[in-house]
## 1
Amino acid sequence: MSMVDGLGPDCPGLVGTLTEYRHIDVEGWIRDDGAAHAAVVATATVTLAPEGGGTSYAGGYVERQTGQFTGYGDDDRVVTAVTHGVLTGTDGSTYRISEVSHLAIDGTGRPTVWFDRLSCEPAK
């Protein structure tokens, strides 16, 4: 459980408690050049309960992450995550949530590329 201060842009404002249950499948391999690769699929169910009452939300999402990590102890890595989900409110409202995030870190641990794009829209 954790506290949240909103669902994201274009979703209703919400301050409350997020409860999340995740199932994670991980696959990894190492190429001949020593670079390690990982693929993760997380399937989750979530509930959002606002402080002081009001509309609660429940639903789920699927997140797919891929990553590459250079070999021989370097810190170079690239990770991309794509998430899609649907939340339905106790008032009957439904929202589609999507997120794409990407991170590249060089051998010194400094981020060289980073973005996180979250979208939320009423489902039709």
## 2
Amino acid sequence: MKNFIYSIVLIASTSIYAQNNIESDQLFLKYEQEYVKNLQSTAGFDYEQAYASFSQHFTDIKAREKTAFTSASEAVASYNNLLQIKATKDAASSNLIQMRSDLLKKYDGMLIYQTLKTRAQAK
């Protein structure tokens, strides 16, 4: 029974120490900034809007050659805009995923999530 209690105290103190350690980790702080920036970003919405705008010009699903674009250059410009917005969105997501992957080498995923959640509630 005594060993069980010591084990619980050890686990609790380790968790508290780990959270204090993660809160001062520069990588975590950068990740937190990117995470918040990504949440506030309109990149996902912009992509959905661009995709909807591009897709609405295809009036006949069976005949892909028939579109509502006024010219080929308008279609190309619309498609290029869609690709550019997607690339921006993907780059931001990729950066966030890479940072999280690096953090997971040092910390538990649940600790990262709980620390983000705790710090967001404190702000």
